[in-house]
């Protein structure tokens, strides 16, 4: 068993996770910056993981790291937007008064689409950017 503290052994994942939370907060709950954060994180992971000959293990580690970052985003976004999901089922909801853009023509449909965008599409987009940037960095490093 190692004598170094937990936070010292895992300082990089902790820093990446805190940066992700900060960027969700910088977007005021809209994870545009956090999704874009997937590009440098994926590039950094790809350059770090492409050192060995085992490509399968490196890709598995990249996918798991991307899933961990997307899971952290989903957790934070669930705390931010989760208490308001019931409004998507209210026929009298006014999405504009809540600050939600009218993505679709009706207010209730726009509210439901907004929650799908925040809670499903944004973490999946962040995962896709981490994996894409990581694979591109691996390809660039192995040439």
Descriptive account of the structure:
There is one protein chain. This protein is mainly α. It has one domain (6-142). 73% of the residues lie in helices and 0% in strands. It is built from seven helices and no strands. The protein has helices at residues 6-9, 11-26, 32-36, 38-49, 55-81, 95-98, 107-142. It is elongated, with a radius of gyration of 18 Å. The mean pLDDT is 90.
What is the secondary structure topology, with strand pairs?
Layout: H1 6-9, H2 11-26, H3 32-36, H4 38-49, H5 55-81, H6 95-98, H7 107-142
Helix pairs in contact: 2-5, 4-5, 4-7, 5-7
Low-pLDDT residue intervals, each spanning 5 or more residues: none
- Per DSSP E runs of 2 or more residues, the count of β-strands stands at 0
Q: How would you classify the quaternary structure?
A: single chain
Number of domains: 1
Number of helices: 7
Q: Structural class, please?
A: mainly alpha
Radius of gyration: 18 Å
What structural keywords apply?
143 residues; mainly alpha; 7 helices; elongated
Summarize the entry for a quick read.
With 143 residues, the chain is mostly helical. The protein has helices at 6-9, 11-26, 32-36, 38-49, 55-81, 95-98, 107-142.
